[in-house]
Each structure stands twice: as C-alpha cells, then as structure tokens.
Amino acid sequence: MTTSLDSYRPDFSLTNRTCIITGGTGVLGTVMARSVAAAGANVVIVGRRAEACASVANSIEAAGGSALAAPADVLIREQLEEVRERTLERFGAIDALVNGAGGNVPAATLGPDDTFTALDADAMRDVMDLNFQGTFLPTQIFVPPMIERGTGSIVNISSMATVGAVTRVAGYSAAKAATENFTRWLAATLALQHGDGLRVNALAPGFFVAEQNRRLLLNEDGSLTERGTAIIANTPMRRFGTPDELLGALIWLLSDASRFVTGSVVTIDGGFASFTGV
Ligand SMILES: NC(=O)c1ccc[n+]([C@@H]2O[C@H](COP(=O)([O-])OP(=O)(O)OC[C@H]3O[C@@H](n4cnc5c(N)ncnc54)[C@H](OP(=O)(O)O)[C@@H]3O)[C@@H](O)[C@H]2O)c1
Fold it and tell me: Measuring CA to CA, which of 176, 177, 201, 273 is 20 to 30 A from 185?
C-alpha cells in the first residue's frame, strides 16, 4: 500500500502574502527582499534613499516578482503610516514584516585607545534609536492589519554582539540586546492576546561584510583588518558569511513551515557563538 507523502512536506511558500522589509536597500536587505519575492510574496522596500528603494523594487519586478518602493525613515511615524496606507492600497493586506534597518553608529564605538568614559552619550542614543526604536516603531505601525486578520510573521535582526562582549562596540551591542529581548516579549504578548497566528522571531547573523561594517573588517585592498582577523580566528568556519546564507532561515520564519515557532532567535554565524576560541 502506498501513502501520500504530501502532508510531510513543510510549506515554505509565501505566495499571495505581502511582506514589508525595512532596510530593503542594504546589503543584507536587498538579498532578503529578492528571496521573499522569489518565495511568492509581494515585497515592500523601505529605506531612506528613494532611488535605492526604486532600484531594488524595479529589479524584482523586472525579474517577474511583485514589489513596491516605499521610501521612509524608520524613526518617523508619519512616514511609516504612509507606507502602511500605500501597502494596503496596492496589495490589500500586510502579512509579514522584516525589521532589517539598522547598523552601527561609529561614534558609539570606542576608539582603539579610548576608555569607557570617552563614549559619546548622544551617539549612544542614536544607535539605540536606529536599532531598537527603528524596530519597535515599524512593528507598532505595521502590526494592526496583522492583528485584525489574526495572522502575521515578524522577523527582527539581532547580532552576535548580544552574545558576549565584543570589544569597543558598546551602543550597537546594547541596542541589539534590547531588540532580542523585545522579540521574546512581543512574541509572548501577541500570542497571549491575539492567538497563535501572530509570531515574532529574530535572526542573529554572525559577521557579513556590509556598508556599515566594511571599514571595520576589511582594509582598502580587501585584506583583513586586525579586527577582521580576530573575528575569523573566533569563527570555526574561518570565513565571513554571505548574504544568501541567511535566506533559508528567513523564509522558514516567514512561512507556515515555522508556524509553532515564536520568540526564537536563530543564530547564523559559522559557529562563532558556540566557540570559546580554544
Ligand atoms: N552585516 C553584518 O555582519 C550584520 C551582522 C548582524 C546584524 N546585522 C544587521 O543586519 C541589518 C542589515 O544590515 P546590513 O549589514 O545589510 O547593513 P547596510 O548594508 O548598511 O544596510 C542598512 C540598511 O538600513 C537602512 N537604514 C538605516 N537607517 C535607516 C533609517 N533611519 N530608516 C530607514 N532605513 C534605514 C539602510 O537604508 P537607507 O540607507 O536607504 O536608509 C539600509 O537599507 C542591520 O540591522 C544590521 O545591524 C548585520
């Protein structure tokens, strides 16, 4: 007797869903946006640079996907409300949100010879704003249509800087730690108040070369900086990640394949977090 194996195949499809991606103009965000479109979703590209939003959206549409360029600053409520209205007008629903906007603020990083007392308090606030408020505010503005329909998946972006002390990087580490805690808090709160269709998780990438960290990791000739060398020495796989290596976990978290997963932080780091360096 043969039985169908269909019910054992996880559903990774995002067909007919609409996903907003903040930071969709960045190194990781652009790749994530293309992947979400490839999984079948309508994608809304959010970043401050209007031309970059249009360029990512156009490239997705040219490849047969469905995308909307919706420039906005994640720290400005009115601009995010406009994105929500434009999204609902064009696609009729919001099913998913990737809070990808973020990054380090150089002045919130200790200089090589500085002591803690030199840390700039305004820069510390800026980096908290970008990485924490810049996740909190879009979530608060884009979640109501998900609550209304009782379904939605939110993916935040954390970092290895939350795992332990990464020297010099004070503000960014604190901000990502706050984002991770908020991921767990919101996961519990949404499920308790609105049911099992609303989920919140996070990806915690290791080290990927992007605009906001390039100068920290690589010299102009492409060789490793001292810091880049230290990171590779503490990464058992002995390399940086490539953006496409985030996509399996991202599509899993956004899709029904992870429908009992909420409050999780998925580490994608070549072994960095589990290695003592010894
Ligand atoms: N690369 C890594 O190794 C790594 C590791 C762990 C976590 N992450 C996280 O991954 C995410 C993506 O970073 P990335 O490495 O791809 O860096 P990136 O290339 O510098 O991208 C940063 C993105 O954030 C957007 N952004 C910055 N400020 C914004 C604001 N106020 N409003 C709206 N959008 C804003 C930028 O868009 P506009 O310039 O158009 O505004 C850009 O799309 C960040 O949260 C970062 O912290 C990265």
Answer: 273
The helices-and-strands tally (H runs, E runs) of the chain is 9, 7
Query: Tokens 């150089």 label which residue?
Result: 106
41-64 pLDDT, tens per residue? 999 999 999 999 999 999 999 999
Q: Let me know if domain 12-206+241-268 sits in CATH 1.20.120.80.
A: no
Ligand 1 proximal residues by C-beta, below 6 Å: 22-23, 25-29, 47-49, 52, 73-75, 100-103, 130, 134, 157, 159, 205, 207-208, 210-213
Could you identify the atom of ligand 1 that is nearest to the CA of residue 29? 16
Supply 69's token pair: 């360029």
pTM reported for the whole predicted model: 0.97
Supply the pLDDT for residue 212.
Answer: 74
Please pick, among 136, 142, 172, 240, the residue that the annotation labels catalytic: 172
The answer to whether residues 169 and 112 touch, using CB atoms and an 8 Å cutoff, is no
What is the per-residue pLDDT across 235-266, written as a single tens digit (0 to 9) for each? 999 999 999 999 999 999 999 999 999 999 99
CB of 47 closer than 8 Å to CB of 26: yes
**What does the alpha-carbon distance between residue 18 and residue 97 come to, in Å, rounded to a whole number?**
9
The tokens for 29 are 């965000």
Q: Can you give the pLDDT at residue 112?
A: 86
Q: CB neighbours of 131 closer than 8 A, spacing ≥ 6?
A: 102, 103, 172, 175, 176, 178, 179
Cα–ligand 1 centroid distance for 24 (angstroms): 8
Exposed, middle or buried by CB within 10 Å (0-12, 13-18, 19+), for 19? buried
